[in-house]
Description:
By secondary structure, the protein is of the alpha+beta class. It folds into 3 domains: 120 residues, Acyl-CoA dehydrogenase/oxidase, N-terminal domain (Butyryl-Coa Dehydrogenase, subunit A, domain 1), CATH 1.10.540.10; 116 residues, Butyryl-CoA Dehydrogenase, subunit A, domain 2 (Beta Barrel), CATH 2.40.110.10; 145 residues, Butyryl-CoA Dehydrogenase, subunit A, domain 3 (Up-down Bundle), CATH 1.20.140.10. It has 11 helices and 8 strands. Strands 1, 2, 3, 4, 5, 6, 7 and 8 form an 8-stranded mixed beta sheet that branches. A hairpin with a 2-residue loop joins strand 2 and strand 3. Helix 4 packs antiparallel against helix 7 and helix 7 runs antiparallel to helix 10. The longest helix has 29 residues. The model has no long low-confidence stretch (mean pLDDT 95).
Amino acid sequence: MHMTMTDRQKELVDLAGWLGREKFAPRAADYDREGAFPFENYDDLREHGFLSLCIPQQYGGLGADYQTYMMVAAEIGRHCGATALTFNMHSCSMLWSGPLADDLEMTTEQRERHEERRAGIFKRVVEDKALFAQPFSEPNTSAAAGKAPFGTTARKTEGGWLVNGKKHFASLSGAANYYGVLCTEDREGADLDAKDTLYLAVPGDAAGFEITGTWDTLGMRATVSRSLNMQDVFVPDELQIMPRGIYYKAAITWPHMFMTLTPSYVGIAQAAYDFVVQYLRGEVKGGPPGKRRSNPTKQLFVAEMKIKLEQAEALFLRAIAEAKVNPTKEERLRAYAAQYTIMEYANDICQLAIRTCGGSTIMKALPLERLYRDSRCGALMLPWTAEICLERIGREALYEPGERDD
């Protein structure tokens, strides 16, 4: 991507690019074929400190802010979409409880407790190299889209919480040490309320915690996003990632937090374009001999891909530059537009890439068919699916907060 970066940002993006080219990309086909989690990639991420990317420097992390994370993740996605997508789940647990939480209003008591608890969580990552997942989705609720309380509940008990419920599409299943479960406090005699949302780190070895189901999917196969069942799982107070109700406040006032899935698909779109250029120039190992760049039809397809890529990246860069607490209405609408455009254009670009290069690229010996399958998953990703983005753009463009039809 073309933008002015600080020296530190460039250093981190360049390191992610080196890992992607030398380590992640050569392994991607095998992990996809087997539907296996990329443990080797995470060994590399640990070795180079990337599990601490979004942890503030005062806690021993690399201190990346939101914009830096988004650029690093896009570079990882350029080489392995599934690694980028799962890396998002871990990084957001750190980002949300770190610099994002610093922007949110809390009482003095909430701030002090949060400071103590997040220091312990960050220590688990910095010193113990722990990996965190972040399961949103539930089988029977729309809570991930911010429209309802989570069906997974947590009831206060001495020293912590008892968690009950089910999550599906839980990436890093079996690989994570902790699962950052979003749930609603179950208060006796009261209805479940989205404002009572809790964000708890459920230990992967806790009694009553079970990973179920299989993961044999169209794309993003190496995310291994199986289901989680929790029955009276005890989570100690020290593993409360955010104070009660603060996640809800973040969802309302820091909406760009839900854009963090998009870098994976920005990277996939860039990878598809890169492949086509190299393929038509005769530079792809295993591709046809000779150059195929003189065909006018192929040149037109490449031009269309480039235009879509530039449009998607331009929106992406502008939207992440605007990310902050309490964005303006236009900034919020632009975030939805960026999410929608990236998720749809990534697949459009991959389709054009296959049409441009021809039938040989549907073979699994080349990466393009995997990029195509992975790209198709983007529009389905909660909490901002393509349809949710369109619905919110249309409604929020036409109504100001609190307005109703007479």
